[in-house]
């Protein structure tokens, strides 16, 4: 597969790779220079719940996620 470096220095991963490896916007990668002209791109591991709060707060059903006041467990 081929891709192009943009004027901002960005490289687009082809859609076939993004779909196959379930790559989503915002995921982080490490880039390592192996030698002149050869690079290694590695997806960083994510925590199981990384982005969960943002996802819940962006939920299209307004009011679906409501923060609740918690009570102290000291009284239990």
List the SSEs and their pairings.
Elements: H1 15-20, E1 29-35, E2 38-43, H2 52-57
Antiparallel strand pairs: 1-2
C-alpha termini separation: 61 Å
Query: Structural class of the secondary structure composition?
Result: alpha+beta
- Large-scale geometry: elongated
Query: Which spans have pLDDT < 50 for at least 5 consecutive residues?
Result: none
The structural domain count equals 1
Work out the radius of gyration.
20 Å
Strand content: 15-25%
What does this structure look like?
The chain has one domain (15-68). With 76 residues, it is α+β, with helices and mostly antiparallel strands. 16% of the residues lie in helices and 17% in strands. It is elongated and about 65 Å long. A two-stranded antiparallel sheet has the order 1-2. The mean pLDDT is 83. It has helices spanning 15-20, 52-57, and strands at residues 29-35, 38-43.
Main attributes of the structure:
alpha+beta, elongated, two-stranded antiparallel ribbon, 76 residues, single chain, 16% helix
Q: Summary?
A:
The chain is α+β, with helices and mostly antiparallel strands and 76 residues long.
